[in-house]
Amino acid sequence: MYQYRTLKNGIRVVAEKIDYLKSISIGVWIGNGSRYENESENGISHFIEHMLFKGTQTRDAAQIAHEIDSVGGQIDAFTSREYTCFCTKTLDAHAQIALDILSDMLYNPRLAYDDMLLEKQVIKEEIRMYEDSPEDLVYDLASYAVWGNTPMGRTILGTYESLDKINPNIMREYMNNHYTSANTIISVSGNFDENFFELLEQYFGTRSIKDTPPHLTEAVYQSGKNILKTKDIEQVQLLASFRGIDVMDENVYSLLVFNNIFGSGMSSRLFQNIREQRGLVYSINAGHSAYIGTGVFDISAGMSPESLSEVAYLISEEINRVKRDKLSDDEICKAKEQLKGNYILSSESTGARMQGAGRSLLLGKPIYTHEEVLKKIDTVNSDSVSQIIDRVLDSSTLCVSAVGPVENVDNLFNLR
Questions:
Q1: Which of 139, 260, 355, 386 has its CA 20 to 30 A from that of 69?
Q2: What angle do CA 123, 128, 131 make, to 5 degrees?
Q3: Are strands 84-91 and 284-291 parallel, antiparallel or unpaired?
């Protein structure tokens, strides 16, 4: 059972009490990521995530780490295109320590100039790591292919040039305008008592912050764009992108059932037919990413350059086959049972439950009970799966991205 509260300053709270546990996961979700940045600010949201761990007015970075470690807890954060999350997991007896640290980081960050110079170098090393990882780089290329030079199309990490422009004053001003009560959620899953809500008010509700949401730019999917980065490496990393569904689309359950058969996991058609039967790739999979008002469905594979054409041909054949023949009732039934099993197993983690509820509330999605989710999976049928296949495998929306020792990726796929 979820409990909903609103703190005095407007921050919304969703809490799920699980009283048979001795742990609690707490997440502070900010509706801000790289999609909210202009070009000169690119990377500032991720930069803020780093800087909040560098110290506050009363704690340095070592003290933050030591205080959470000393009670056997965990603290982490991550930044995406549309949100940033700061989260902890501790024993329920140490929830107040977690709230104290999280609120201190968010409300009293030091943002010292010297710390910022040092952390810029850390993030630049992170950028270099991504540039040296074709599996990661190809996804950045794909984002640029489908959304162009827009906030959605630019990298989450930023560039060397954009990072160099950011100083403490710029970062503080950005936080004042983007870390507002209107786009802040606190999500909780685990064991707590009624006093916990008083602690939330004490640590998070007494600070007056702006209540206006930051501006969100529209993300228009650009069909037919191909991007290639020629790189002297051993493999080609290939990504075929199609226009997907947005975060509010209830057809996501039909999409998950379809992809369970088509491209997700070791039993999928792509994996079995291209890796297991022919040995042409080490990794191959498909998946979808849903955002506000937009989405993308990707098929990724890594192979030797001489196998590129054959792998693209085989992927094309699998796409053409599933569009022509769709899925059988037996396949759909098996996929639904596997999907339900995966969901139930993942829901045994308070961290996963906290993330699911927090992300949903932040993005304006309904928060379903586990029984409701299982029921929605059960309602998936051959008609709904057939419709989603035709939607997400529309060849007119195809964009191709690749990294490796090749010179051309145009006309690589033969889709009908």
A1: 355
A2: 130
A3: unpaired
Q: Going edge to edge, which strands form the sheet with 294-303?
A: 226-230, 399-404, 236-243, 294-303, 284-291
Closest CA to 317 of 269, 280, 278: 269
Backbone dihedral angles phi then psi of residue 275, each to the nearest 5 degrees: -90, -55
So what's the pLDDT on residue 364?
93
Q: Token pair of 140, please?
A: 């950045």
pLDDT in tens, 281-314: 999 999 999 999 999 999 999 999 999 999 999 9
Q: Compute CA 106 distance to the chain's CA centroid, rounded to the nearest angstrom.
A: 21
Query: Which residue is it, tokens 């991720």?
Result: 46
Token digits of residue 358: 């927090």
pLDDT score for 1: 84
Residue 300 burial (10 A CB sphere; 0-12, 13-18, 19+): buried
Q: Is 49 a catalytic residue?
A: yes
Interhelix angle 44-51/113-131, nearest 10 degrees: 120
- The pLDDT of residue 401 is 98
The radius of gyration of the chain from alpha carbons, rounded to an integer in Å, stands at 23
Q: Residue 380: helix, strand or coil by DSSP?
A: coil
Give every CB contact of residue 129 below 8 A, 6+ residues apart in sequence.
Answer: none
Residues 285, 263 contacting (CB under 8 angstroms)? yes
For residue 395, what are the contacts with CB-CB under 8 A and spacing of at least 6? Answer: 319, 413, 415, 416
> Which residues 6+ apart lie within 8 Å of 30 measured at CB?
83, 84, 85, 86, 178, 179, 183, 184
Of the residues 37, 49, 67, 82, only one is catalytic, namely 49
For residue 9, give the DSSP letter. T
Give pLDDT tens digits for 206-250: 999 999 989 998 999 999 999 999 999 999 999 999 999 999 999
Position 294, amino acid = T
Q: In a 3-state reduction of DSSP, which class is residue 161?
A: helix
- List Cα–Cα distances, 303 to 240, 285, 402, 410, in angstroms: 14, 13, 11, 17
Q: Which two tokens mark 108?
A: 């009293």
d(CA 332, CA 256): 10
